[in-house]
C-alpha cells in the first residue's frame, strides 16, 4: 500500500522529470553509460535515465517498490532497466563497473557508521573517474540552534508537501538518521570520492556531485 501511495503523495510536491533531467545534466555522462539508481523507489529517476543511457540498474530493498517501477517500465516499453532487490549494505553489483550512481533521499535510512560502509561499497562499483550524485537530508545549521532549526525543517517540509505532509518530516526526525554536512562530506572523501560540487538546498537538504578518485 505504501508503494501504491508513494507517487500520489510525492508528485504533489516533486517533478520527477525535471529532477531527473537536472541530475543527468550534472552527471555529464554519454549515451553509452551504465548507471546504478540506488534506492530507486517507484522509478522516479530510473525510468527517465533509461531513455538516455545504455543500461540502468535499478536497486531497492522494497520488492513492492520494484514491482511498481517494473510495471511502469513495461508500460513505457523500456527494456534496458534491470530491477534488483538490495540496498547499500547488501547489493552485489555483478555487471561491469558503472559510469554513474544516483541516490536520492535513501541514504538517511542508515546511521552514520553504516552510511560510511554503504558509500564505500557503492564507490567500489564505480569505474575510476565515474560520477556519483547523492541528494539527501543533510543538516548544515549550527548545532547550537538545533531545536529551532528542526522546528523550521518540519515546517518547511510540511509547507512543500501539502496539508498531510507534516507526518513525514516528523517521522524522519524521530525514527530516521539525519547527518551533519561535515560528517557527510568526510564520509564521501573516505569512500574515495572527490567532491566536485555541493548544493545546499537550504539548511536541511544537500546535493553532492562526486568523482571517483583514480589514484
Give the secondary structure arrangement, pairings included:
Elements (H helix, E strand, L loop, with lengths): L1 H9 L5 H12 L6 E5 L7 H4 L5 E6 L2 H13 L5 E5 L12 E7 L7 H13 L1 E12 L8 H16 L5 H9 L5 H10 L2 E8 L4 E8 L3
Helix pairs in contact: 5-8, 6-7
Oligomeric state, counting identical vs distinct chains: single chain
For the termini, the CA-CA separation is: 46 Å
CA gyration radius, whole angstroms: 17 Å
Major sheet details: 7 strands, mixed
Structural class: alpha/beta
Low-confidence stretches: none
| Series of H and E elements | HHEHEHEEHEHHHEE
Number of E strands: 7
Q: How much helix is in the residues?
A: 40-55%
Q: What is the averaged pLDDT score?
A: 91
3D shape: globular
Strand content: 15-25%
**Which strand order spans the largest sheet, edge to edge or round the barrel?**
3-2-1-4-5-7-6
> Helix count, per DSSP?
8
Amino acid at each position: 500500500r505504501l508503494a501504491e501511495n508513494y507517487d500520489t503523495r510525492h508528485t504533489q510536491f516533486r517533478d520527477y522529470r525535471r529532477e531527473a533531467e537536472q541530475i543527468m545534466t550534472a552527471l555529464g555522462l554519454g549515451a553509452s553509460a551504465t548507471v546504478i539508481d540506488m534506492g530507486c523507489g517507484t522509478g522516479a529517476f530510473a525510468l527517465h535515465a533509461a531513455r538516455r543511457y545504455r543500461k540502468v540498474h535499478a536497486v531497492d530493498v522494497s520488492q513492492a517498490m520494484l514491482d511498481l517501477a517494473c510495471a511502469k517500465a513495461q508500460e513505457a516499453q523500456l527494456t534496458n532497466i534491470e530491477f534488483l532487490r538490495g540496498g547499500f549494505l547488501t547489493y552485489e553489483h555483478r555487471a561491469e563497473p558503472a559510469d554513474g550512481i544516483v541516490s536520492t533521499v535513501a541514504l538517511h535510512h542508515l546511521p552514520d557508521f553504516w552510511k560510511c560502509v554503504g558509500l564505500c561499497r557503492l564507490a567500489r562499483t564505480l569505474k575510476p573517474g565515474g560520477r556519483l550524485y547523492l541528494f539527501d537530508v543533510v543538516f548544515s545549521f549550527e548545532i547550537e540552534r538545533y531545536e529551532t532549526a528542526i522546528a523550521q525543517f518540519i515546517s518547511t517540509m510540511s509547507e512543500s508537501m501539502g496539508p498531510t505532509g507534516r507526518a513525514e518530516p516528523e517521522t524522519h526526525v524521530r525514527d530516521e538518521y539525519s547527518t551533519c554536512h561535515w560528517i557527510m562530506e568526510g564520509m564521501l572523501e573516505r569512500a574515495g570520492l572527490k567532491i566536485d560540487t555541493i548544493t545546499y538546498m537550504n539548511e536541511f537538504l544537500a546535493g553532492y556531485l562526486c568523482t571517483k578518485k583514480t589514484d
